[in-house]
Amino acid sequence: MKVRALLLMAVACVPVAGEAPSSPGDAIVENYCVASRNQEQVLRAASMDVEIAASLPKLKKQGKLHALRRISALGRITYEKLRFEGDGTVKNQVIARYLTAEAESQKEQAPSLAVTPANYKFKYKSRGMLDGREAHIFQVTPRQKRQGLFRGEVWIDASTYLRVQESGYLVKTPSIFLKKVAFVRKYEIRDGISVPRQVQSVVDTRLVGRAELTIDFSNFSVDGAKSLATDTDGQ
After folding, report:
1. Rounded Cα gap, residues 128 and 135, in angstroms
2. In angstroms, rounded to a whole number, what is the distance separating the alpha carbons of residues 195 and 17?
3. Containing H/E element for 230?
4. What phi, psi does 30 have (nearest 5°)?
5. pTM higher than the cut 0.85
6. What angle do CA 61, 48, 52 make, to 5 degrees?
7. Contacts 24+ apart (CB under 8 A), 18-23
8. Phi and psi (nearest 5°) for 10?
């Protein structure tokens, strides 16, 4: 299964047929695809602590969920909810809906949502600095209006070609209860892997007004032995 997923990722990184190279940024995108594909080989059977802080400013309600986030050998994300503090409306109308939307997005194969030339048009914008690291900034536009895809920017680390930030808004909201979802996803480079560090989202809902979420990730770990065993079994 894992080998098949990697082959699909490789296909996803191939430029769309009929499109000629448009700028020097094409080489950067190609290196980014290779780095992302290599990362997929080790970013399995991973786990991390998450803290999801959410608020409804209009209602002056807040809540915070502490959980353990796991990524299976097949890439499926699950949560073990440890404890919740705060208002029940925030828990049910904001945090629970966020977790449900993430679960729904996994019903499609991962490459279908990958930020690659198969799904997005890349346009080089400039170079910039982020957390002391030099990065290439690309504007990305989805080729289709599909759930889980976004319009915005991707920052690619100039040294490793791994993503360090994604930002923008979803082109199709994951629920009829949501009108618009804007976000900033921040990553850090650790041992040659781009791991999630923080996600900040602002969601316009139809029922409870504006909702704000900040998701912090910590204690990221990969069970290398388990991942390797799974790869061997799947070959």
Report:
1. 5
2. 31
3. helix 224-234
4. -65, -45
5. no
6. 5
7. 23/123, 23/124
8. -60, -45
